[in-house]
Amino acid sequence: KYMTSDEIREKFLQFFEQKNHKKLPSSPLVPSDPQLMFTVAGMVPFKPIFWGKVEPTHTMITTCQKCIRTNDIENVGKTARHQTFFEMLGNFSFGEYFKKEAIPMAWEFLTKVLEMPEEKLWPSVYIEDNEAYEIWKKIVPEERIMKFDKSENWWGPVGPTGPCGPSSEIYFDTGFTDDCPDVENCTPACDCGRFVEIWNIVFTEYYAKEDGSFEPLARKNIDTGAGLERIVAAIQGVKTNFDTDLFKEIIEKIENTLNVKYGKNSKTDTSIKVIADHARAVSFIIAEGILPSNEGRGYVLRRILRRSIRHANLLGTKTAFFSKIIDSVIEKYEKIYPELIEKQDFIKKIVNAEEERFLQTLEKGLERLNNIIKKGKISGADAFELYDTYGFPFDITEEIAEEKNIPVDKDEYLKLMKEQKERARKATGNKEYAKSNKAYKKVGDDLKTTEFTGYNSLNETEKV
Ligand code: ATP
Ligand code: MG
Ligand code: MG
Ligand code: MG
């Protein structure tokens, strides 16, 4: 019997606790950092420490962090290794240990605790990072150490200046070569999917300055991110993250609810994976109080939810189903993330309302889209109409266009969106103006004064 995801998560945290790390609970998906939409990595809650703005209470920390990555939405269901919601395991050092400790610890955990076969692990280092290379050389044969450039093995700075540094990653050889065009020469540099990046250690050792130069940091930090879903897939010997025990009950629930079978047909599987992934993301996002809306986090939620409803439609389900899938997500995670069970009713209520709303226009929208497709292309105006009249987030239109192999004019769509926002802003501006006008007038009347400054302050607010 294989190791379960719960055991692997627990073993990771225990391993680093035994190595004197303080175990902290996951921070929220909605970060306190106003510049970030969601927590995208385990290091996000510690940003002020990395930036040197706050002194750490603990200099060695381990966590399992809930993450959402919107940049991976399109990958979901297509690659084996991407989710929108996933858990990132991490060990962090703030000025305590560095490369020569962090690398062997990662190795010990993977090969001794999880007992991964050594020959299946391929490290990578930044091409100029001889220090990391020398450390790996003592651990694995040189043929297996990859040297990559900044696009792969470098982190930061976020913005023009700030902390940054090289990274070292560990790839797992899944042995699945069916999609490889050149099996003989396949290494982690090949993107056939055989090698999966499971672990990333960032060596935050420089400060990028305005003039483009790097200054060594006084306090060098370690930031590790290891994807739980990917490690579990490696340990359980399955081809995709969706075939792990993390998704088993959720996918079974989708099979039963939508009356479909997983593992028979790749198109069906993609839809099932999208729904399974999105059900997790939706549950965790709503649990933090985010509601579907047309902007910001709420719009990410709406896009994710509507994309899954469209995939269910593809699978032949035209009625509300989503809250049933939510049940299986909550069951799977309630012990680790009790916020799900606390917010259970709320999550389902929101999901039901949004689903009902989208189902009112989905069929008609698909019909309209089918007519548009006959023209051989989707114009920006078409995409905008689908959004505005039928509530189709652009992702859906784009995904369908891709399936039909026809172009869609994104630039024109974005231009029309911008114009609409502008109009909406002016319209609400006027409404606000009228409302405020009344309110201000009332204040003026109440004060029985002729010195009425309401309009001036209104102009001030309008500037913002
Ligand atoms: P990839 O190159 O595969 O997209 P990444 O380099 O973007 O991954 P990192 O930013 O290095 O990922 O994040 C650290 C780790 O988190 C990765 O090594 C991986 O194990 C995990 N991870 C990253 N993105 C995802 C995702 N979308 N779904 C599941 N796990 C992920
Ligand atoms: Mg990525
Ligand atoms: Mg990568
Ligand atoms: Mg990486």
From TrEMBL:
Q: Which reaction does it catalyse?
A: tRNA(Ala) + L-alanine + ATP = L-alanyl-tRNA(Ala) + AMP + diphosphate
User: Where is each Alanyl-transfer RNA synthetases family profile domain found?
Assistant: 3-464
Is Ligase among the key words of this record? yes
**Where is the protein situated, by its record's location annotation?**
Cytoplasm
- Give GO terms for biological process: alanyl-tRNA aminoacylation
As cofactor, the record names: Zn(2+)
Q: What is its EC number?
A: 6.1.1.7
Q: How is the cofactor bound?
A: Binds 1 zinc ion per subunit.
Q: Name one GO cellular component term.
A: cytosol
**Molecular functions (GO terms):** alanine-tRNA ligase activity; aminoacyl-tRNA deacylase activity; ATP binding; tRNA binding; zinc ion binding
UniProt keywords, alphabetically: Aminoacyl-tRNA synthetase, ATP-binding, Coiled coil, Cytoplasm, Ligase, Metal-binding, Nucleotide-binding, Protein biosynthesis, RNA-binding, tRNA-binding, Zinc
What domain of life?
A: Bacteria
Q: What does this protein do?
A: Catalyzes the attachment of alanine to tRNA(Ala) in a two-step reaction: alanine is first activated by ATP to form Ala-AMP and then transferred to the acceptor end of tRNA(Ala). Also edits incorrectly charged Ser-tRNA(Ala) and Gly-tRNA(Ala) via its editing domain.
Q: What is known of its domains?
A: Consists of three domains; the N-terminal catalytic domain, the editing domain and the C-terminal C-Ala domain. The editing domain removes incorrectly charged amino acids, while the C-Ala domain, along with tRNA(Ala), serves as a bridge to cooperatively bring together the editing and aminoacylation centers thus stimulating deacylation of misacylated tRNAs.
Q: Which family does it belong to?
A: Belongs to the class-II aminoacyl-tRNA synthetase family.
In Swiss-Prot or TrEMBL terms, this protein is called Alanine--tRNA ligase
Q: Which organism is it from?
A: Tepiditoga spiralis
User: Parent protein range shown?
Assistant: 2 to 465 of 867
